[in-house]
Amino acid sequence: EAVQERFFRPYFLQAPGDMVAHEGRLCRLDCKVSGLPTPDLTWLLNGKPVLPDGRHKMLVRETGVHSLLIDPLSQNDAGTYTCLATNKTGQNSFSLELTVVAKEVQKAPMFLEKLQNCGVPEGYPVRLECRVVGMPPPIFYWKKDNETIPSNRERMSMHQDTTGYVCLLIQPAKKADAGWYTLSAKNEAGIVSCTARLDIYAQWHRQIPQPIKLRPGISRYANLTGQGLDIFSAFPTTESPMLFSSPTQKVVESEEL
């Protein structure tokens, strides 16, 4: 008796669902199909055939798993993928949506505002400030005279925000804090640094006498006397009768005086 040949329409035993993949990486779409004779597979992107090239490859493993490999993935690869399995008895298909996450743009750190040389009186707070941008956001390292400043150092605290503002706060400042300070900003794309000098002044530098203000309508001598000065005894003037008197002369009274 003649052997009757049997045929089976293609049927997907394994098929991927909607996917999210990252730009610049490998993307793999796997499926497994049955059918007799063995079906031929065709991949479509938004209704147009996906042809093998430098970035797109179609593979079949011994286990019967078919794979579409895209490497590296680009934004143009996003869309609706359809896989058609066809043999002489008919065809079957499945579809999925591939979303491509944009590759993170990398930019080396860059100073918008650098550290500035500064000086403060001893005992006052001081801020060493600058502004740095970069993608991904950089990590910051502070040094004093080429020695790393630990984050828990007494009287020193490090601050930053999402705008790129970076600050080293010293409160209160002491003479030992004087020196050269360096800030380094580092991310995956690069590293930059800037340096500035901090000077700490002795306390007497800020003991500047205030100017004496005269009150209108009142004698300048009264103003000085109000400051605790005996101006008449210290600086005799024409108002003092002793200025022109002599021990050997008598004071002459006159109506003109």
Automatic annotation (TrEMBL):
Keywords of the record: Actin-binding, Cytoplasm, Disulfide bond, Immunoglobulin domain, Phosphoprotein, Repeat
Chief place where the protein resides: cytoplasm
GO molecular function terms listed in the Swiss-Prot or TrEMBL record: actin binding
Compartments (UniProt record): Cytoplasm, Myofibril, Sarcomere, Z line
A Gene Ontology term for the protein's cellular component: Z disc
SUPFAM superfamilies linked: Immunoglobulin
Domain Ig-like residues, every copy: 10-99, 109-199
Top-level taxon in the UniProt lineage: Eukaryota
A Pfam family hit: I-set
PANTHER family: IMMUNOGLOBULIN, MYOPALLADIN ISOFORM X1
Family: Belongs to the myotilin/palladin family.
Protein name: MYPN protein
Organism for this UniProt entry: Sula dactylatra
